[in-house]
Amino acid sequence: MTVRGRIRAPEQRSYAIVRTAFVSTYPPRHCGIAAYTHDLASTTSNREVVALHPADLVSAAYPIEVHHRIRKDERADYIRTARALDGCADIVSIQHEYGIWGGEDGALVLDFVRALDIPAVATLHTVLQHPTPGQRAVLSDLVALTDATVVMSRSAATLLSGSYGVDLNRVQVIPHGVPELPLVEPATAKPALGVDGRLIVLSFGLLGPGKGYELAIAALPEVVKAHPSVLYVVVGATHPDLLRTEGEAYRRSLVEAVAALGLTDHVRFVDRYVGRVELTQWLEAADVFVTPYPNLDQIVSGTLSYAMGAGRAIVSTPYAYAAELLADGRGMLVTPGSPTALGSVVNEVLGDDDLRLALGARAYAYSRRMVWSAVGADYRDLMARIATPAPTPARPIVLASASA
Question: What pLDDT sits at residue 5?
Fold first, then answer.
């Protein structure tokens, strides 16, 4: 898809270096969008970061590239920071998900954009199939106020067009970035994690009911019957927003379900936010990766993207992002809400080495377009096309006639 407005046609590729200000949650905040923004910003040498500072993050030792902070619920911070970017940045990259911005339905993002005097691009991490009126209004206004919109899947672009009436000429699909990892056999990575000889089924990400881990646990007894060495590993801390409101109730419910099913020797919770090195180790050690998400409208999943980037065999419920990325034999989709269906397909993949290797190889090949170096190049080109005005065609010089 092409993007128009202030953007030159894609065939007129520009590699001008523009200074980009990224506005998002940011490490040390533990959330997927913070990690995404850190990796995206790292692909751009001429950058600065505006950190959306959550109320529950009392103090934070931000990296040196963070030049501004916006306190989530302080409207004056949004206005002041937007005006401060004029003159020190050429363009602003806004990461959007309702919960990271202040105001009702994150409406303070609109105050921020309206106060900008430089172009802005919005990357949408959530596009809801059934938004509330407030959510619809915020997203529609954000798309209208910015100079281009980035989504990470064709299904998200289609949803924007069909349900929100967005002109697809203003939308660009740039895939979710993934680390550039080698394709390795799980057996080579297991000894370092102390799981040598086990068949590893993996899920990772911040814990919350939206991840559907209870479905995977309910499916596990049948998997253990067929493969007694299986170990289901769930890597990740409880989501900080859920931790603030409900504590560890969800994690405790999972632990209790494991105990009730007699699966204590077959489930391991890695209860912390792991760094890139350890996460890579778990991805490479996994025989099967599972995303059992119950929300079939979900338009992006960083965890599924990472698993593809590691070349893992993936079993997933058919939410929108998984249905698109795992098409054409790049993964296995199962009936949502059915532990029996999930367990049956996991057993099929674990029991067939050729199938497992083929699924992983296809996922890995597809994900080469998703490595951060490629994604960063797409973003730099987009930013340059927006921030650098198209040259005005020179007026032809008309020479006076010799007879004049």
Answer: 39
Give the closest residue to 162 by CA, choosing from 53, 52, 299.
299
Averaged pLDDT of the chain = 91
Q: What is the pLDDT of residues 26-42, one digit of tens each?
A: 999 888 999 999 999 99
List pLDDT tens digits, range 264-281: 999 999 999 888 899 999
Q: Quick one: pLDDT at residue 392? A: 54
- What domains are defined for the chain? 20-176+372-386 (3.40.50.2000), 186-368 (3.40.50.2000)
SS3 per residue for the chain: CCCCCCCCCCCCCCCCCCCEEEEECCCCCCCHHHHHHHHHHHCCCCEEEEEEECCCCCCCCCCCCEEEEEECCCHHHHHHHHHHHECCECEEEEEECHHHCCCHHHCHHHHHHHCCCCCEEEEECCCCCCCCHHHHHHHHHHHHHCCEEEECCHHHHHHHHHHHCCCHHHEEECCCCECCCCCCCHHHHCHHHCCCCCEEEEEECCECHHHCHHHHHHHHHHHHHHCCCEEEEEECCECHHHHHHHCCHHHHHHHHHHHHCCCHHHEEEECCCCCHHHHHHHHHHCCEEEECCCCCCCCCCHHHHHHHHCCCEEEECCCHHHHHHCCCCCCEECCCCCHHHHHHHHHHHHCCHHHHHHHHHHHHHHHHHHEHHHHHHHHHHHHHHHHCCCCCCCCCCCCCCCCC
Per-residue model confidence as pLDDT tens digits over 121-148:
999 999 999 999 999 999 999 999 999 9
User: How far is residue 303's CA from residue 326's CA, in Å, rounded to a whole number?
Assistant: 13
Residue with tokens 């991490």: 125
Predicted confidence band at 16 (pLDDT cuts at 50, 70, 90)?
A: low
Q: Which two tokens stand for residue 203?
A: 């899920």
Taking the C-alpha atoms of 320, 325, 327 and 333 in order, what is their torsion angle to the nearest 10 degrees?
-60
